[in-house]
């Protein structure tokens, strides 16, 4: 038996998680997967009512009692500083030390890609984003706030341990998935201190993986080439902020944010799986959000739980629906969120 914590969160996080949960319940029936689900109502509503974002003891509970977490999205205009979102999602990533944010980028049908002349096999790479350091540690300060002399600092943190482990993870990921190329991307030409650490770590670790061809690109060049030559990429490893930004660009290649899945992974420990998109308040509750990113995320979680047949079957069901045009409007279809969920279920 595997215990799954389900946190739909806010906005369309709730709409799309409902569909991936229907798919996972069907997986239980078809594959005798013995997944057990416990849902948590953490999000803006609870925060506004009770002042609680992440209840005390949450990390310990997840570590002890759960095998994985399926997450929707957080973000609500009623909480202008999005404090609850940081206290839930960033806290879980940091608190559970989920250091590898793995974002596969795959095109399932040429018509989903905004670029001319791109074939499905041209867009098939994974971004491995460092998930616990960099700009997102929110270190810094402000001085003379509100005056003409105001000073704000935002400090990035890169540790040898943190950089080494994400680069090692990316090499191991490449090996596991039969990939032969790994590109490291940074901005070491202008961010010399952190850049130097990333460069040395990458070169030193690469020595242990002679079968993987390595390359390096500055992040701006990576953006250019990702659009011009997406087929050049197999696995990309980069820091927290660059990985966050570049995977929105990458999502555009595969049909938009509604198609993008991700895992926040710590090998051999409880890991958290979430679609790349946010809570998209204007779409919430209207049966228009694309649930495929969340369903593909559920497939990633199944693979992490070593339910590989179930994972492939769910992924193939989504691919079949895309090819038949059984999709939401964001990728050219006419169906609603629930109807896409039903179309995927029908393929299982
Ligand atoms: N992981 C997370 O929980 C996460 C990630 C990003 C943003 N956010 C939060 O979400 C809120 C909205 O942020 P945003 O608008 O910048 O990002 P967003 O991802 O919610 O939306 C960006 C754009 O993509 C579209 N989109 C996203 N997901 C879609 C889907 N499943 N189907 C169809 N269209 C989809 C939206 O309509 C919008 O046009 C903010 O509060 C933000 O802080 C949360």
What does this protein look like?
The structure is a single chain. With 348 residues, this protein is of the alpha/beta class. It has a 10-stranded mixed sheet, sandwiched between helices. It has a two-stranded antiparallel ribbon with strand order 6-7. The longest helix is centred in the N-terminal third of the chain and has 20 residues. The chain starts with a strand and ends with a helix. The mean pLDDT is 97. Bound molecules: nicotinamide-adenine-dinucleotide (NAD). Nicotinamide-adenine-dinucleotide binds next to helix 1 and helix 4.
List keywords for this structure.
globular; two-stranded antiparallel ribbon; 11 helices; 348 residues; 10-stranded mixed β-sheet; single chain; alpha/beta; binds nicotinamide-adenine-dinucleotide
Mean pLDDT: 97
Shape: globular
Distance between the termini: 21 Å
In which range does the helix fraction lie? 40-55%
Low-confidence stretches: none
Alpha plus pi helix count:
11
Short characterization:
This protein has 348 residues and is an alpha/beta fold.
Layout of strands and helices, then pairs:
Blueprint lengths: L1 E8 L2 H20 L3 E5 L4 H7 L7 H8 L2 E6 L9 H13 L4 E7 L17 E7 L3 E10 L7 E7 L2 H17 L4 E6 L5 H15 L6 E6 H10 L6 E4 L1 H14 L7 E5 L5 E5 L16 H13 L3 H16 L13 H11 L1
Parallel strand pairs: 1-2, 1-3, 3-12, 5-10, 8-9, 8-10
Antiparallel strand pairs: 4-5, 4-11, 6-7, 11-12
Bound molecules: nicotinamide-adenine-dinucleotide (NAD).
């Amino acid at each position: 038996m595997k215990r799954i914590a389900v946190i739909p969160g806010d906005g369309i996080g709730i709409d799309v998680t409902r569909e991936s949960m229907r798919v996972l319940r069907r997986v239980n029936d078809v594959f005798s997967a013995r997944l057990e689900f416990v849902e948590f109502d953490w999000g803006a509503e609870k925060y506004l009512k009770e002042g609680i974002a992440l209840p005390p003891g949450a990390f310990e509970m997840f570590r002890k009692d759960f095998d994985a977490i399926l997450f929707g999205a957080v973000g609500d205009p009623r909480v202008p500083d999005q404090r609850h979102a940081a206290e839930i999602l960033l806290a879980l990533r940091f608190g559970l030390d989920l250091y590898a944010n793995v974002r596969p980028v795959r095109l399932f049908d040429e018509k989903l890609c905004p670029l001319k002349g791109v074939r499905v096999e041209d867009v098939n790479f994974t971004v491995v984003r460092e998930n616990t350091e960099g700009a997102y540690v929110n270190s810094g300060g402000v001085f003379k706030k509100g005056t003409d002399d105001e000073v704000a600092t935002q400090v990035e943190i890169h540790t040898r341990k943190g950089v080494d482990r994400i680069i090692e993870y990316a090499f191991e990921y490449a090996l596991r998935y039969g990939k032969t190329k790994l590109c490291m991307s940074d901005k070491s030409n202008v961010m010399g201190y952190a850049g130097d650490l990333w460069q040395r770590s990458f070169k030193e670790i690469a020595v242990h993986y002679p079968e993987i061809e390595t390359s390096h690109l500055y992040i701006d060049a990576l953006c250019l080439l990702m659009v011009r030559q997406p087929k050049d990429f197999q696995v990309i490893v980069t820091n927290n902020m660059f990985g966050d930004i570049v995977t929105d660009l990458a999502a555009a290649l595969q049909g938009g944010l509604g198609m993008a899945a991700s895992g926040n992974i710590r090998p051999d420990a409880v890991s958290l799986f979430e679609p790349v998109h946010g809570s998209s308040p204007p779409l919430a509750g209207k049966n228009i959000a694309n649930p495929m990113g969340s369903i593909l995320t559920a497939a990633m979680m199944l693979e992490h739980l070593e339910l590989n047949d179930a994972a492939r079957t769910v992924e193939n069901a989504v691919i079949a629906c895309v090819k038949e045009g059984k999709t939401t409007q964001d990728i050219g279809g006419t169906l609603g969120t629930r109807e896409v969920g039903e179309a995927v279920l029908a393929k299982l």
